[in-house]
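Progress against Task 2.4 (sequence-to-structure conversion) is shown through the following example record, which the project officer requested during the mid-term review.
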Amino acid sequence: MGRLDHCFLLKMRDGRSGMAFCAAGERNIERARDEASRALEREEYGQESELAYLGLLDYRQVEDSATDMLGAFIKRGPVWLAFFEAGEAP
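Structure tokens generated for the chain above:
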């Protein structure tokens, strides 16, 4: 992966939570938040979600096996989304 992502926690009105990761690149926090919001709208959760910024995630030391564990994520442009059921720990 070898890059940085802006990371957000998600809170949904239906009790679910999740995370959004947006490639940092040339994006500042607000642009990343806008991209994440648009990705949530494409998943029909735009009006039902709240984003809280966590910070930057640095992938430089990620293990190669992590790429085999991305099946639960939804990719929408520069944003990766993961949702958790109510009461499920991320």
